[in-house]
Amino acid sequence: MRLISLLFTLLVGLLPSALAGQVWTIAATTGPSARHTAAAIYDPVGERIVLFGGRSAAGDHNDVWAFDLHSHDWRQLQPGGAAPMPRFSHNAVYDALGQRMLVWSGRSLDAAGSTLHNDVWALDLRTQQWTQLLAASAAPIARYGTAAVYDPVARELVSFAGFTTQGRFDDTWRFDPAGRIWRDVTLASPQPGERCLHAAAYDSQRHRMIMFGGQRGTAALDDAWALDLATDRWSVLPPAPATGGRKFPAVTYDPSADRFLLFGGETTAGTRGGDLWALDLASQRWSVLTTTGPAPRDGAVLVHVPAQSRLLLFGGATPDGNAGDTWSLVLPGPPTVVRLQPSQLQPSTQQAPQSLQAYPNPFNASVVLELQLTEAGHVTIHDMLGQPVRHLGAARAGTSRRLWDGHDDGGNAVACGVYLAVLQAPSSRQVQRLMLLR
Predict the structure, then answer these.
(1) What does each C-alpha distance from 376 to 47, 354, 365, 373 come to in angstroms?
(2) What is the pLDDT of residues 374-385, one digit of tens each?
(3) pTM for this one?
């Protein structure tokens, strides 16, 4: 039977404008002690959220917890090696290539007083070992209330501003974990201005850091800025309307809908928000997505889970005290059009693999391929001419993952462009289009 080109549209949930039909639900009732200003990352290989530190009524913490995205259970990890000092209002970013969580900055409060930090730590997510990345150069002055992302192209931690013993700063720094070198990349203009208690997320489609809010003087800020990670230049984005300004907001980035998401925070008036806002980065328009769900709070942790198209929210400070609850919100995405050519289809009387998904996509340094299979196969990356670029090996039946770091079989970095992830099984062939940006 002659095969023809097949065009079909898969509607993933509802349109973003219909998010009002979605509701927050409790994802877990037990887990880490109630706390605020912790930090967490999404570990796509381990299919979990990994959380570190924060401040509770009992003081500061340096414990590590993992939230399983399938069982919805929290489990305390017991990493080896010397651990970072307990702290709050620090940053945590995910290094996909090294499969590790990087932690930097923060504040500790104890009987001796207040201590600000400028140390960087790495938690290996495979071996569960802590390592302090001692700086081989002059480091930024110790601080807390910073905002940071991981640049997967340069493979560096990027941090902006924060509060120091000398007041608030407006500097931008990069840290190379391999060489353990800090670089001050602050440019003269334009600049977001001095601040602390702000937050940032990585825009994977444009290779930018999106930063929002914070505090200057006694005022909570409502401005949004983008840092081009290729040039280290800031540009202003539309401010969020009617938020009243927010310090200690919780933010993340949704790559499927290309939007920056903001939850809660404390206003200049001292009230806390329980609303979820979205900045559409294509149209540069803000909108309110939800106003009900978790109690109003600031200092919460908000993580986007691309593989499940949902948000996870943990902790924070509410009007009634610190929170230890975990909430989930499913995010409907935009329609996805998938085009399959005749050469990509093979007739089969057997059941085909269920799915081949990639995230983030587009990507900069690495992409995770999620496989759900009913029979064993193998995974290969091809260029658009059909030539194999990288062999990622066999894939067993069931759920598994493969990480492609943008290199060929010889260890050479490939050029930016479009590639095809091909999953070949005895009775079927699945193809996923990938976009590599540098």
Answers:
(1) 21, 12, 27, 7
(2) 888 889 998 876
(3) 0.76
